[in-house]
Amino acid sequence: MSSVYKYFPPDRKSFLEDFLIRFSPPVELNDPFECLPAFTLADLEKIAAHVRESIERRHNADDAPEDIREIANEIMEIKKKKALERYDSLDKVRSACYDIAGSNINSGLGILSLSRRWNSSLMWSHYTSSYSGFCVGFNSLHDYFKGDGSSLGNRSKLLSVRYSEKRVVVPPGDFTEEDIRDILLTKSKDWEYEQEERLISSLFLATQRKHKEPYPIDLFKLPSDAVTEIIVGSRMDSKILEFVKTASSALNVKLYQTKASEMTFDIDRIEIEI
Fold this sequence. Notes:
- By secondary structure, the protein is an alpha+beta fold.
- Helix content is 33%, strand content 26%.
- The chain has a five-stranded mixed β-sheet with strand order 1-4-13-14-15, with helices on both faces. A three-stranded antiparallel β-sheet has the order 2-12-11. Strands 3-10-7 form a three-stranded antiparallel β-sheet.
- The longest helix has 20 residues, at 66-85.
- It is elongated.
């Protein structure tokens, strides 16, 4: 693998000027199963039992002064009942697990999704506004894609997504490093056509942050010398095409345009002189 690719809609042409790109929290990606492990019924029952035990222990006023112990226990019983109602089914326990895990992951972790292929007709349709956008090729051997770390956090090297017919099942308790890696890199086989490579980073390393609810937009600056080629869609507006031509010239990289194969359902490309 010498190149990886990112598909862009036409309104993201600014990337070719500022090279800022979003690392998205998993919940903002388009797969509803993104980074969500599965739990067996047995594991959910263990978690539920642990939660109920914790609630029972926490909502106890036996250590209160004797003169107020009775009323304190009555108040605690009411609070305990309400707390237990939030976990009175395995579906509620599962939902709570996802909420807690999701809050931790989505507030601090960002993913940049790239692809090993530039010629996916589905990705051109989905991610470039039906061939009106563009695709940027990057040198996968560039130092930026080898990972980095600082006192603020880490950015991974390029990591290949694994495609599976089964979701990742993890036991209750603390996740191991291997568990976390499996959760972050396993997707359904339905997505296999994307041939995805990922960079995963602490969002504290972002170059720029823009306010947005419920999660901010964290932008990272990619090195311009990592760009190796630009491919524009066959339906790109002529004014945007002129903009991309100028950018390609400034970067000194080749520019191509997609075209439908004359014999198959493949996507071909032709070089554009700049």
